[in-house]
Amino acid sequence: MKVYILCAHIETKADLHRMLKTALCFPEHYGNNLDGLFDCLTDLRRPVTLVLCDFSYLQERLGDYAAKLVTVLKNASAQNTQFSFSFETADVLVFEN
Fold it and tell me: Under DSSP, is residue 83 helix (H, G, I), strand (E, B) or coil?
């Protein structure tokens, strides 16, 4: 399953975690932080690819936190073979009705 996050719609860390929680169906106890993200990603038991679209927006708005996010994603994908991630630009996405 591919899950797309449109980074252009994220302004704050809270926005990021709210979007991740909803898109990835994280439990209510999700901590809304990078530690909680790592825990939930490594607990995934179904194949999931997280696709971050237009990541440059996140880098501009969240700075160093965006780099820390990538580190968490790399570490989680190394620990859990069910999880992977990629980067795309929104102009390559095709939306179907």
Answer: strand
